[in-house]
Amino acid sequence: MADSDDDNDGYLDTHEVDCMSDPLLSTNVPIDSDGDGVCDVNDDDIDGDGVSNDDDAFPLSACASMDNDGDGYPDSLVADCVTNLVEDLDDDNDGFSDLVDAFPLDVTEWYDTDMDGIGNNADLNDDGDAWTDQEEEDCGSDSLDADSVPADYDGDMICDKLDTDDDGDGVVDTLDAFPFDASEFNDNDGDGLGDYADSDDDNDGWLDDEEPNCGTDPMDANSVPADNDMDHDCDISDQDDDNDGVLDIDDDFPMNPSEYRDLDGDGVGDNQDNDDDGDGWLDTTEVLCRNAAGGVGDPNNAAVMPIDNETDPGADGVFGTDDDVANAGDGVCAALDPDDDNDGVPDPAVYVLDANGVCTSCEPWEDHFPWDPTEQFDGNNDGKGDNANKLSIIDDISAEPAPFVGIGFAIALLVGLVVRTAGGRGSEDDEFEDYDETEEFLEEDDEEEYEEDEA
Known about the structure:
Elements: H1 13-19, H2 133-139, H3 211-214, H4 283-291, H5 393-398, H6 403-423, H7 428-454
Helix pairs in contact: 6-7
């Protein structure tokens, strides 16, 4: 029977042949490093570490299998494994110790700041803060610090440093008075308060919603509402522009607080006008004339004027009925005038006429015809003035003497008596001659008196 183990080394001859050992030499036996019964020549995992020889950088050592950088030093050693191998501290030989290298087997990576599994060299956003590394570099923030992000006021992912409209209000920052306030962009008056919030954009003291109603520009400080009375109610809307208590529609001088009425329409307000109704009579005079006994006058009614009738007989030709001061006499109303006809002879205090037109209340020295400047006295009490109706000697004797006529009559009578006494009783011719001289004297005296009155 043939021997299956010729050298009696414990290995079948066929096995030794397969393992490339000498079947006839007992000292030459198949090598089986891991003792798994499979000789190394035929063993796919010589060191039995579970890593095939092809993938095992150290196929003969079960203590190591990887040498990432191929520097002959195992990337790691099996714990408690006895070996002469020295573990590699930089497996990828990238210059970063495996202790700090997030990718110890990747020569191109060593950090992974955001721990997203992508090394910083390949990662476009190292800190994972939504801003790319390039954006952060451009915006001035730290691309390796997630807490350091670019300022972006409007959140449009364009940092403020690069954003031309930081608040996103549609107005570029160079033209925006409030580049970080989306609700404001203009400050017309420069008071630091945006126009939208500012109730007075031009700072002229008038609110923006007031000015349009007043016809002015709320954005122009030089355009302010007209406000005559300065009550902060512009003239357009103010119903009393001068604030005098009289509405403009009733005020002849709506812009003058000292005037409100112009009764006579002469352009001078009644407060300043001394003749409100324009009738030619001063207001004060009309009041005095109205208040006098029997007087008339109304400073507010041109149709009611004081009676002043020295020279104007009126429409009906009767003295004392006309009140047209333009055509009348001295401008003093009859109620106050001591000489209504301005003939120099005072009016009677009381004027009473009898049925014959004779003044029964007149004193001898008073004007029996107070409204007729051509007559003063009625010596014979016939109701007719002496100037128009010359007195006869009989009238002179029987008449109630007026002041100046009486004096003339007395003188004439005295002269006659003297003549008559000195010459005795003469002829009838002498008597009539004396009468004629007396009559002539009286006439001359009357004429002189009238001329004086006229002067």
